[in-house]
Amino acid sequence: MEKGISKAVIKRLPRYYRYLGELIDDGVERISSNELSERMQVTASQIRQDLNNFGGFGQQGYGYNVAHLYQEIGKILGLDKTYQMIIIGGGRLGQTLANYTKFEKRGFQVVAIFDVDPELVGKEVRGIEVHLMEELEDYLKTHKIDIATLTIPKAYAEETAMRLVEGGVKAIWNFAHTDLHLPEDVMVENVHLSESLMQLSYNIHWHETHKS
Amino acid sequence: MEKGISKAVIKRLPRYYRYLGELIDDGVERISSNELSERMQVTASQIRQDLNNFGGFGQQGYGYNVAHLYQEIGKILGLDKTYQMIIIGGGRLGQTLANYTKFEKRGFQVVAIFDVDPELVGKEVRGIEVHLMEELEDYLKTHKIDIATLTIPKAYAEETAMRLVEGGVKAIWNFAHTDLHLPEDVMVENVHLSESLMQLSYNIHWHETHKS
Known about the structure:
2 copies of one chain form a homodimer. The first copy, chain A, is α/β, with parallel strands linked by helices. Chain A is built from 9 helices and 10 strands. In chain A, a hairpin with a 2-residue loop joins strand 6 and strand 7 (128-132).
């Protein structure tokens, strides 16, 4: 059933999940697609269409059961499981991500950090040990890792990603500012911060040149 | 002319910009849309369509002048200017972003950090001073700030964004995990890291439940 779901819908699901979580915190038990639409500022028909991809969850005239919908979307997003995550790159960004306890609450457990710098080796970030990059292959032989986060310079990103893939890692969270060319069954999610910033500069520039 | 450009095209421009920058580094002076298409793994017709939004830049049968196209896309993205940026939240993420010299090279200059924690006040991150949050209004009276980056808990994000907007800030780079409801002329670019991570867990979960 989930086969034909578009990437656009999947991208919207975490937002539904977040709003439903907030509704639960507010003690709301049921919500109509119209009310949810007002809160989320998307059309009610979009909400109905999106949720219909997964079998609906709503009863005509009765609205959605918030807790149930939250739980079901969580399952679709795979959030009822835990994921073992490693971070490649023990610099500022890698340490910052390792320190996010919020990810752990959602089931993403950072279990190790790897870095080329021998000075960092043996140090701990929130109890998570930094290993030398050379040890990666051995580590992957004895640990099942679901997600590897790349916070290394782009020049080393693809080569490192290939080492991870050869070690059995199937999902890469890529903060290096480059596109990774990897086997088709490997999932890559890019976070390109400077490209996000350029959306702002585009808009600032556009507004300045189109002032009336 | 730029009026009708879709958000989707604008989102793709930084990627063109990046690839063209790499071509320049590699000494490439001209490239056909077919060659660019192979490198970027998008169709040649998409490239032609996208670039036609801005008047084309290509000559039939002659390809694109790489340096010229790079420069023109940079201008469209507003990268021929500099932007004064402040960071609200002097925690790990705020400090990490303040330390990115790469942003500065692109024209995004971090000029101040603000935090509620008096212990941080007066400290410097790469020469950038941390100010007490109470001083924000006074600071904005005497400094023209183009972009404010929010790296604070979501509970304070909207209230803080409103203070920024009242102080004249028109663009917000939002890392707080919430949607900001701000006046229409304020631009917001969200970076929701946990939602990015959920795209990976969705895919891992989907592959596990659809194994043949």
